[in-house]
Amino acid sequence: MLAAAATLALPGLRGLVLGLDGLLLVLLLVDWLRTPAPDTFAIERLVPERVGLSRDFERRLVLSVEDARDLRVEVHERFPAPFLVRARTLFGERVTPAHGAGGQPDPSGGPDVGLLADGRLELVRTYRSDLRGAFALGELRLRVRGALGLVERQGRFDGEQAIAVEPALAGLRHTLKLAASERWRDLGIRTLRRRGGETEFESLREYVPGDDKRRVDWKAFARRGKPMVRQYQVERGQELILLVDGGRRMRITTATGKKRGWTKLDWAIDAALQLAAVALAKGDRVGCATFDRGLSTWVVPSKGGRQLTRLSQALFAEQPSDHDADLARALRELAARHRRRATVVIVSDVADPLSIDLQRKALAAASRRHKLVFAALDDPGLRDAADGDDVPAAVRATALELMEDRSRALRALGSSGARVLDALPAEAAAPLLAAWLEERRA
Fold first, then answer.
1. In whole angstroms, what separates CA 5 from the centre of its chain?
2. Domain-embedded: residue 160
3. Are 80 and 160 in contact, with CB atoms under 8 Å apart?
4. What pLDDT does 201 receive?
5. Are residues 149 and 240 part of one domain?
6. Cα 154 to the chain's mean position, in Å?
7. pLDDT at position 195, please?
8. Average pLDDT per run of 10 along the chain, which is 442 residues long?
9. What end-to-end distance do the CA atoms of the chain give, in Å?
10. Is the full-model pTM beyond 0.90?
11. What letter does residue 12 receive in the DSSP assignment?
12. Which residues contact 64 (CB under 8 A, 6 or more apart)?
């Protein structure tokens, strides 16, 4: 418009303006010819097949194209709603997600942007999922700007890449290490009843800091020139079945901390798999099942290193249902599927007051066949309301009344013959390990 007005006002500039227009057209053509079409790019997306719940993981996107320099590349990626964008690439730097209107986080996280200078560009994005299950990264939209900044070309790449979000088991390696050296106190297990004093001698191993010095074998120390400790074993070949409640009461979430948003079921699966790993390491056969109105997932008890993978794969996609859990039916179905005596660890919660007697009778009936451990996961929000000084009086009074109802229910369940535990979801692993060891040595 300005150029046209200038030529009308000053006819002598018409030649100059036409020349500039021609130059601009030439530059546009050059930029277009030097800017490759998106479908000529080779794209490789690298993501792990399995990631831990609430743990950051990286997606690497490698783009390459021949005979291209100084291209600005912008990539938009479709990803599952439960995924959070923790960081993205912006011209070689790692930045936190962009913010939209009102300063709120942009759900898309913003695009990955970089300069393709030598025919190759790597863009890294960090995701995290706070929901277990099977997901997939979806289509990619590519926007390429030419070296002169006059042309942009766009393209879309369809396709999906599967990612399984599994229980985090962040402390599993540490737990197994401590369990292997019988350092139960370091796992939060305070006391263990032993039958007839010490258990059967198994083997010698090198001393590691934290081992009980009373277990040092001084003769072996003298022979080998380095401290050695005695390891003991209890009965082998026992069976453990993990029965995890997947009913609606397991939807309650953790309100604070790094694992904010974890449900009771998330914590139950994490604790159950840690117990399974230790039991398998000790030579036991381990199986698992989940239930709501009846048994759903079922893994036959077995032993060996691969069994933990089977258990984890069976449990990783489980989500709380909309139904109340029927423990009595689940235990009857378990009895039909597994007739041998076993230690059955139930990770659940106490029923509502009107159903406590039914829950107690179900535990009493199953206790005649199996050794039962019933772990009731408390509501952390309820405990906070009962213990908080800054909580309104009416709320605190209600919370205290509900906790008293829960205490009465736990006492009633304790009369069933099952070992009853009460723990916060995030602290359930240690009581479960302690109860399993007690039952194993009983």
1. 65
2. yes
3. no
4. 55
5. no
6. 36
7. 43
8. 51 66 71 77 92 92 84 92 91 77 65 87 92 92 85 89 85 64 56 46 68 73 77 66 94 70 90 91 92 93 91 91 93 92 93 89 92 91 80 86 90 93 85 84 70
9. 93
10. no
11. G
12. 41, 42, 119, 120, 121
Cα separation of 376 and 360, whole Å?
Answer: 13
Count of the separate structural domains present in the chain? 2
H/E element holding 228?
Answer: strand 228-233
Two tokens at 244? 């995890």
Rounded distance between C-alpha atoms, residue 333 and residue 326, angstroms: 11
Tell me, yes or no, whether 18 lies in a domain.
no
Residue 274 is assigned to a structural domain of this protein = yes
Residue-range definition of the domain harbouring residue 130: 39-99+107-166
CATH number at residue 297: 3.40.50.410
Cβ(236)–Cβ(394) below 8 Å: no
Answer whether 95's CB lies under 8 Å from 124's CB: no
Domain contains 430: yes
Amino acid at 194: R
**CATH, residue 116:** 2.60.40.10
- CA separation for the pair 242, 297 (Å, rounded): 11
State the Rg of the chain over Cα.
Answer: 31
Alpha-carbon gap, residue 9 to 32, rounded angstroms: 33
164 and 51 Cβ atoms separated by less than 8 Å: yes
- Domain end point (choices 120, 136, 166): 166
Single out the residue in 166, 195, 217 at which a domain terminates. 166
Position 287 scores a pLDDT of: 96
What residues form DSSP beta bridges with 63? Answer: 43, 121
Shared-domain flag, residues 261 and 377: yes
Question: What are 93's two structure tokens?
Answer: 């730097």
